[in-house]
Predict the structure.
Amino acid sequence: MPFHLLPLAAVPHLLHHTLVNPDCRHFRGDLPCRPNKTDGYVCEGCPAYAPVTSRVLIIKLGAIGDVIRTTPLLRRLRQERPGCYITWLTHTPAILPQGEIEEILKFDFASALQLQGRQFDVVINLDKEKEACVLLNTIEAKEKYGYALRPYDGVAWPVNQLAEHKFLTGVFDQTSLANTKPYVQEIFELCGFDFRGEEYVFDTHEDKGYDWAALPTARPRIGLNTGCGDRWTSRLWSTEKWIALIHGLHAAGYTPVLLGGEAEDARNRELHAATGAAYLGTFPLPQFINLMHQMDGIVTQVTMGMHISIALRKPTILMNNIFNPHEFDLYGRGQLVGPDKQCVCFYRGTCRLGTSCMEDLPAAKVLAAVRESVPLKTAAA
């Protein structure tokens, strides 16, 4: 039998009279493991030996926000499968908590090729992209969850009944509108788990030593994540509305801080000039996450910043119009606010009526949600 077809239990542990433990989570195969490099340990008698009980592959390529809100699965997998070794395949490795996942792979040809030659106990594919689905088809595993690729027509398809509900919400607007389950609950059920309020697993990057001396010291700080991306522009709030909110925050005793990336830089500079709200500029993703961590609350639309805010366990004031509000779980922190006018553009990138109903979301309504979610501290007597 060729070597690569041997089950793990049949792989010899003695190589040239030397004990090797390939089932250890520290074992690399191509390089010395960390215990060998740092402490000189070898497999025989190694105090760091940690046998892997099962191997799990998560395929969640993107977008960044969806990768972040998939991380609660890590908590449940660790509970249900103690000693498991988790591999995660994604487009954005930097967003994942490096110390919480044994192996994080960036999706490319080399990663896909080597995964197809491996064996897993569990493979979970949460993406409907064809390249993700075909990996579920071709990787050998005892249990498979999520979406596969139907060979004869090349479409994504539920690999079992557990995936049917989540699948249907993505192909029929009527089903999506009627859904009352948050996204995290849906993916837990897709994997055969009941959702018990597991929080995100996330790195605050607090240990990086970022200097925030330029950040106002007055509290509470309310981060204003002013962008919404290029795809769903129907959720965009106007500059005039942001200005009104900032003035209201100042008057109420809050310290507004403008947040965003390159796409929001021009708008944030304009808002800073018009209102005096703090704006420190744009930063690489880890530093931006840590800047958000300095906030006492976050006002955001449905975008990456929303997922980061929830992951950081910040009170999140979420402005939403075009998405099913049941999709979002704020974990009891913050509020979801919507326009006073009924939205008629479910999952549409542009407004059918010409002017987005987000203009019918008053700044006063958002300010009231901030007041309820991030109360001002009572001054000492």
The chain has 13 helices and 14 strands. Residues 204 and 290 are 6 Å apart (CA to CA). The two ends are 81 Å apart (CA to CA).
